[in-house]
Design goal:
Blueprint: E1 2-8, H1 12-23, E2 27-33, H2 37-45, E3 51-52, H3 56-60, E4 65-68, H4 75-82, E5 91-94, H5 100-110, E6 117-118, E7 120-122, E8 143-146, H6 154-166, E9 170-173, H7 176-202, H8 207-212, H9 216-222, H10 229-238, H11 240-262, H12 266-284
Parallel strand pairs: 1-2, 1-4, 2-3, 4-5, 5-6, 8-9
Antiparallel strand pairs: 7-8
The structure holds NADP nicotinamide-adenine-dinucleotide phosphate (NAP).
NADP nicotinamide-adenine-dinucleotide phosphate (NAP) is lined by residues 9-14, 34-36, 39, 69-72, 74, 78, 95-97, 121-122, 125, 129-130, 133, 228, 231, 235.
């Protein structure tokens, strides 16, 4: 049970966490912080938060757990601002989609409180943003990856693990480097492909007609191109090295497909599509 929880960034991820903990009866008081007062007022109205503050320092002062749920580019200034105000016994965590940049920022900004910081990433989300996008079941049966280091206090890790378990999530532990490499492939690269496809098609002369005939496959493939552009700009900047390497390898794969099509190589195409289908069917099933 968390007596006082502070959520910095009351958007999709932060508000869903609060709603899930409230539904589980696992939190007492939830205080929010964000820059946009209307969003926070909406959070009060929806019962996502119980109060809000006009500064990060004020919002974390009495908190037992602080969850930083802002875009990756805002993590460092948020950590710098909360450091002088947070209790030494508090546990601080984040939900950022890449971990290396956040851990570096926490090492730089938190000083002796670094041991109280547990880096985290819920593998759950939608293409929607803001407090109204949040819902209590977002983390049900979803994975949360934690990437604590040698210096992280075990009791801080246990507190964050318990928090996510209350939301119905399962916990996995990865190193920061492994997390960023794996997520670059499974999450960051697909977002780049969706953004690039829609951007490319929208630049064609007859794009109105192309989009008019868009069917289920196009919608499925491009749904994530409706995700928040600023959030994904920050993910690219934070995890650029891993991501650029994957984009280059993917370009080679597309070249291979184009070459097989140009050559009319039906066997090669069937082999490639068959392998991809059986991999996806066995890994993901019919989701
Ligand atoms: P979101 O819905 O846009 O919420 C982000 C919140 O952060 C907003 O409420 C915004 O409120 C606040 N914020 C933005 N810039 C800020 C700043 N400079 N200082 C303080 N607050 C700021 O985004 P989200 O989807 O919840 O993503 C939050 C984090 O979760 C990101 O780090 C993202 O990488 C990670 N994540 C996202 C997903 C996903 O699918 N969306 C999944 C896993 C992890 P104000 O504008 O009022 O300040």
């Amino acid at each position: 049970m968390i007596d006082k929880l502070a959520i910095i960034g009351v958007g999709l991820i932060g508000s869903s966490l609060s709603l899930a903990l409230k539904q589980a009866g696992a939190v007492g008081q939830v205080t929010g912080y964000g820059r946009n007062r209307n969003n926070l007022e909406k959070g009060l109205e929806l019962g996502v938060i119980d109060s809000y503050e006009s500064s990060i320092a004020a919002s974390v002062r009495d908190a037992d757990v602080v969850v930083i749920a802002v875009p990756l580019g805002a993590m460092q200034p948020v950590l710098a601002e909360l450091k002088p105000a947070v209790k030494s016994t508090a546990v601080i965590t984040d939900v950022g989609s890449a971990k290396g940049s956040v851990v570096t920022a926490a090492e730089t900004e938190l000083g002796e409180l670094y041991s109280r910081f547990v880096p985290g990433h819920p593998i759950a989300g939608t293409e929607k943003s803001g407090v109204e996008a949040g819902f209590a079941s977002l983390y049900q049966d979803r994975r949360v990856i934690l990437t604590p280091g040698q210096r992280t206090d075990p009791d801080a890790v246990a507190a964050i693990e318990a928090m996510w378990l209350e939301c119905g999530a399962t916990i996995e532990y990865l190193s920061v480097e492994h997390h960023d490499k794996v997520l670059a492939a499974t999450s960051h690269l697909p977002h780049m492909l969706a953004y690039a496809l829609v951007h490319y098609l929208s630049g064609l002369n007859d794009h109105d007609e192309i989009f008019r005939y868009a069917a289920g496959g196009f919608r499925d493939f491009t749904r994530i191109a409706s995700s928040d552009p600023a959030m994904w700009r920050d993910v690219c900047i934070a995890n650029g090295d891993a991501l650029v390497g994957l984009i280059q390898q993917y370009q080679q794969e597309l070249d291979r497909v184009a070459a097989a099509i140009s050559a009319g190589d039906a066997d090669e195409l069937l082999k490639l599509f068959g392998k991809a289908k059986s991999e996806r069917d066995s890994l993901i099933g019919n989701c």
